[in-house]
Amino acid sequence: MGSVWGHKINISLFGESHGAAIGCVIDGLPSGLAIDFDAVDAQMARRAPGRSPLSTLRKETDRYEVLSGILNGKTTGAPLAVMIRNEDTKSQDYNPDILRPGHADYTAMTKYKGYADYRGGGHFSGRLTAPVVFAGAIVRQILAQQGIVIGARIYRIYDVTDEETAPDDVLDLLPDSFPVKNPEAKERMQQAILRAKSDGDSVGGIVECVAIHVPAGLGDPFFHSMESRLASLMFSIPAVKGVEFGDGFALAQMTGSQAGDGLSLQEGKICFASNHNGGINGGIANGQPLVCRVAVKPTPSIQKIQKTVNVMKGETVSVTVKGRHDPCIVPRALPVVEAMMAIGVYDFM
Amino acid sequence: MGSVWGHKINISLFGESHGAAIGCVIDGLPSGLAIDFDAVDAQMARRAPGRSPLSTLRKETDRYEVLSGILNGKTTGAPLAVMIRNEDTKSQDYNPDILRPGHADYTAMTKYKGYADYRGGGHFSGRLTAPVVFAGAIVRQILAQQGIVIGARIYRIYDVTDEETAPDDVLDLLPDSFPVKNPEAKERMQQAILRAKSDGDSVGGIVECVAIHVPAGLGDPFFHSMESRLASLMFSIPAVKGVEFGDGFALAQMTGSQAGDGLSLQEGKICFASNHNGGINGGIANGQPLVCRVAVKPTPSIQKIQKTVNVMKGETVSVTVKGRHDPCIVPRALPVVEAMMAIGVYDFM
Amino acid sequence: MGSVWGHKINISLFGESHGAAIGCVIDGLPSGLAIDFDAVDAQMARRAPGRSPLSTLRKETDRYEVLSGILNGKTTGAPLAVMIRNEDTKSQDYNPDILRPGHADYTAMTKYKGYADYRGGGHFSGRLTAPVVFAGAIVRQILAQQGIVIGARIYRIYDVTDEETAPDDVLDLLPDSFPVKNPEAKERMQQAILRAKSDGDSVGGIVECVAIHVPAGLGDPFFHSMESRLASLMFSIPAVKGVEFGDGFALAQMTGSQAGDGLSLQEGKICFASNHNGGINGGIANGQPLVCRVAVKPTPSIQKIQKTVNVMKGETVSVTVKGRHDPCIVPRALPVVEAMMAIGVYDFM
Amino acid sequence: MGSVWGHKINISLFGESHGAAIGCVIDGLPSGLAIDFDAVDAQMARRAPGRSPLSTLRKETDRYEVLSGILNGKTTGAPLAVMIRNEDTKSQDYNPDILRPGHADYTAMTKYKGYADYRGGGHFSGRLTAPVVFAGAIVRQILAQQGIVIGARIYRIYDVTDEETAPDDVLDLLPDSFPVKNPEAKERMQQAILRAKSDGDSVGGIVECVAIHVPAGLGDPFFHSMESRLASLMFSIPAVKGVEFGDGFALAQMTGSQAGDGLSLQEGKICFASNHNGGINGGIANGQPLVCRVAVKPTPSIQKIQKTVNVMKGETVSVTVKGRHDPCIVPRALPVVEAMMAIGVYDFM
Predict the structure, then answer these.
(1) For helices B129-145 and B330-347, angle between their N-to-C axes, nearest 10 degrees
(2) Structure pTM?
C-alpha cells in the first residue's frame, strides 16, 4: 500500500498506465480557493509528452476532469478528485512474459504474484506523475499566496553540468522548457540527449529544485524532518535514485569550518553567510532558500539490446524495449519534482 | 511533531540531551522474541562516545532500562519502552543566547518560540540516536531469524574514499570499529580525522550500508517505496544531508545501456548482471543486496572561530563552540545508519 | 480532512451529492482476487433508493465504473478506484441560505466558510455511503474466503423492537430487504414508517450487525481496540449517534456475576456460556460472534414545519425540507453498516 | 499495535500493570505552556485507587516522573514523556493458567501466543489509564485557555439513574468525587455499590461527559467525525462497551420532528432550541455543548464463583478472582473519560 501520502494534505493516487484512467484524491485543501486552471494546464503541459524532439512521440493530452471538491471555480473543502482517461495506449507493445530490465516488471510480478497490470508499467508507470503534477499545481497556488515560490532547473544531463547559481536565478529560468543557466551547457546537454536518441539509448541527469520564502520554523525534528518528508516524496518519483539538500554529498568532503553557515545580524534580521545546509537545520526551515537536488537515472526503456528473462518460456532472451520512449526524462521530470516540493512544503503548514 | 515513525513497527522517540532521560517506545514487535541483550549492548557500545581518540572525550555509558514489554527475557507483544538517564552533562557549557552555526539552535528557537531545551542541542542532539540504535538492535534480531543481515562501512572521510567492494565484504568488516576495506584508505581517513581534531575543526564523510537477503517483493510503489521510507529514516539522523541508492548520483551520468541491470535465468533462478539500482526497482526489493549511501556533514561543533548572533544582546559575535565534541561523527554514525536500515526493512514485513 | 481511513486497507472517499461524481480509492487489496460483480451489484442495490414505498422516490442507479486496480476481472494489487456519476439531481430544491435543522448545513458553512457544496448536503450526503457499500462488497468477498460472514437486521424502528435472537438467525434473514426476526414486529415497524411518511415526518431505529467466525486474537489493545476501530467506522455513517457492542448500555445495569461470560472446555475447545461482551475482550476478538448495534436518528429531512435561519436575510424562518426523502433510512443503512463492519474486520487482518 | 493515537497530538502508551513502569510519550504539545502540576496531581488523585470505601483497597500512589519535554516548568515543544513506577503489586495473586472470565486473559493469550504479561492484566490493565489521565490533565489546560471546559458525572449506577440536567450543572458537580445531580439518586447509587461489595460482586454504570465552548466548525466529515474520533478514544477505556452522543440510542425511538434541533437567530447569533445531537452535526461541532455518554460494564473481577478454564491442566474450573478490586469502577472512570474527551477535542484543533 503505497498510494497514500500526507498529514495536513492527503493524496491518494490511483491508476495504471493502460487502464481506464489515472488520477488522485486530494484531501486537506482549504475551502474558498479560487483555482487558476490556466496555471494548472501550464504545469500539466510541461510534463506531457510528445511536445519536443527531445521527448517521446507518444501523445498524451492528459486532459483531466475534476470529479469533486470544486464549486463555482472554488474549492469546497471536501476532497478534490481528479481523473485523466488513458488514451493513445498501444498495449500490444507489452508482453507480460518479458521482464524489462531496470523496470519494476520483476518486482511487481513477485509482489503481486503475477496479477499486476504489466501494460506500460501499470501502476509503476511514470504516467502516474500526471496527477501528482495536478496536485502540485493546486498546492503551489496556495503557497504563492504566502510568497512561497518553487522552481527547478536541469542541473546535469549525462556528463554536462550547469554552472552554480543563486536560487533566484533558477526561478528566472522557469519559463524555459529546458531551463539551464549556462547557454553552452544547455546546448551540450541537448546534444547529449539527441545523441542518446539516435543511439537508441538514454541518458540520466540531475534536477535542482528550490523553494524560496519558506518561513523559518517550518518543519519538524527527526522522523518528520523537512529532509525526511521531502525525500520520501522525491524518491516516490520513478527513476529517482538520489536526493540531497544544500551541498549534500559535497559536504562529506568539507571541514566544519568550511561548511558552517555563519550567522549575523543585519538591520535586526538574522542573515546567513552561506547556504551549505540548503535552508534546513535540524529538519526545520531556517528561512533561506530550500535547495534540493535529485538524481534521475537513465530510462531503462531503450532500443539497444538488453539481456533479460522470458518467464513463461523460462529462458534468458535478448530484448529491445518497444514502445515510444523518452531518450531522457529529466526535462519532463522538472514539474514533477516541483510538485513534490510544493506538496511537501504545504504538508508542514 | 516528528518523533513518531512507522506502520508495522511504531517508534516514539523522546528526550533531550541534558534533560532527565532519553528513550523510546517501540510498538509492533512480535511476542515471544527472546532478546539477546549482549547483542544490544554491543550495538549501543559502537555508538557510545568516549571510546577512541577519534571520538569525543564525553563519557556516556548509555545504560538503558527496559520499562515494559519484556517478561522473562522475552517480548510480551505490548509496547517496549526503554529509558536512558542522562549523565555527565555539562549544561553550563551551553548559552541559550548564542546560536551555534550549523546547528538547530536558530530553527528550534524560531519553531518553539524560545522554549526549546537549548542545552546540548536538546531534542535535536545526536544523543537521541541512542534509543534508535537500541530499537535497531532489537529489530535486527528479528531480521536475522529470516536471514537478513545488515552492515555498514565508512565509504569516505573528507577527501579519502574507500575502494568499491561487494556487499558481503562490507559485512565482513563489521567487527572493526572503523570498518574500511582498503587499509591504506583507512589509515589516511584516520589521519584526516586526527588532523581535523588538532586543528579544532571537523570533517564529514559517507557511510555505505547494505542489507542482504531482503526478499524480492518487499516494498511498495510510490510514496512508500523502499527508497522513500528508508530515506525518510536516514534523513532523520542529525547531520545527514544526502541519501542515494545503488549507484545513486552516479546514475545521472550513465546511459541506459550502462545502467540496465540485465536479467538472466541461472539454474531456474532469476539473476542480475549488476546492481546499479541497489536492490530496488519500482520501490520494491528485487532480492539483490540493498545498497544505500548517506552523506554526513562535518559536525558544526568546532573550536575554530565562527561568526554568529547573540540574540539577547542583539549583536553579531564570534564563537568557538565549547563542550567535548567529535572531530568526525561518521564512525559513531555507522550503527545508527544500520539501525535505521533495520527498522525500515522490518516495517515493510 | 476526514475522507481517509485505514491501516491495512486504505479508503479515500470523495464526492458531493450534486457534483460530477462520488467514489473512492481503495488501497491495500490483495492481488489476484476474482471479484464477483454480481455480488457487488446486489449490495449496491440494497442501498440504492427508489425501490420501495418505504423509501424515497429519488432514483439513483448508482451505476459505478471501476477506473483502476482490476485487470481481467481480478485485482492487480494497485489501488482500486471506483466512480459513480451523479444523476437525477434536483439541485434547485436546495437553497444555500437556509440551514436545514439537524443537517450539517450550519457546521459545514462554519467550517468551510461558506464554500461547501450545499446542494443535497454536498460531501455530507448519505449518498457518500454508496462507495462505502462498494468497498465493503469487495472486502466481504475476501472475508468470506476465510469463513467470515457478516449480516445485519433491523433491531428497532421507532417504538417497535425485534425479539432477541442468535447471530446465525440474523444471517438467515439477510435475503430479506426488511430483515426482522419477529413477523409481527416487522409488520408494526413498516406501519410506523408508513405512518411517519403520511405525516410528512420520519422515524429512527437501531441496526444490529453481526460477524461470525472472526478468529480469536484479531484486534489490538487500547486505541485500536476492535470496538474503537469499528465504532470510528460506524460513527462515520451519517445519522448514527450511538454504538454498542454485546449487551452495550444494558451492561450498565448488570452485576459482574450476571455479565461474566464464563468459559469452559468442551472437546478441547474453549467455549463461552454467554456473549455479553459481543465477541470482544480487551479490544481483541475472542472467537464468538461480533455483535454491534448502531442507533440511527430519524432523518431531519421532513415536510413538517421546522424553525431555522435564513443566513442571507439574517432572520428566523419556518421551513419544510423539500426534495425527495426517506421517511426512515434504517433499511437502506443495513448494507452500509455491514460494509463498515467488513472494512473494520479486514483492516485488522 | 494499539498504543498510539492521534494526528495533532500523538500519544504513545506503554507499560504493564506489574512490570517496571507505565507511562506515555506525548508529542504535539505547544511549546511555552506553563504546566500547573497541582491541577495534574488533582486529576491523578481522582483516578487513583485506595481512597474510598467505594473503591479498591489497593494503594497506588501513581507518583509520576516527567522524563522530557519540560524545562523550567514549561513545555519545550519536544515530546513529553512521563513514567509511573509500579508499586504495591501482588503478582503472586495471578495465575497465568487460569483465564479470568470477562477479562482479556484469553484474547491476550491467543494474540500474543502465551507471552503476554498476565500479571494483573498486564498491558490490558485499567492501570494503563493513569498516563491517559496525565495526558488529559495537560491537554485540558490548553483547552481551558480557549475557554473549553470538560466535566463528567455519574449518570447511572446499576439500576439507579440520575436526573436529566444541563451541561453547566454537570460542571458544577465536578469538585465532588461522586458527582450526581440528584442527592437521593446519589445515595441509592452508593448503596448499590456497597451492596455489590458485600456480595463479592460488582456493578456497572454510565458516565456522562460534557465539553462546553467547543467552537463551531471543529471536526471533520466521515471517518474523522467528532463522534468517530471521540468514540475511538472512549472505547479504548477498558470496560467501556457503549458510546452515544446527544440523545444517542433514545433518538432511535423519536420522530424527525421531535429530534430536530431547530435554529433561530437571537441578537445576531445562531441558537438551537434543543441539543438532541449532542453538539455535533455531520461530524462537526455546532457550538452547543458536546454531550457523550459511555456505558461501563461491571468489573469482572469478583469474588463470586465463576466458571472458567485452567489452560495448563486442560480442565474447566471454578474460580473466585483474587486481588483487591473495585466493586464499581465508574467513579474512578470519570477523570479517564474526561481525559479522553480533552485529548479528542484537542486533536481537532
Answers:
(1) 50
(2) 0.96
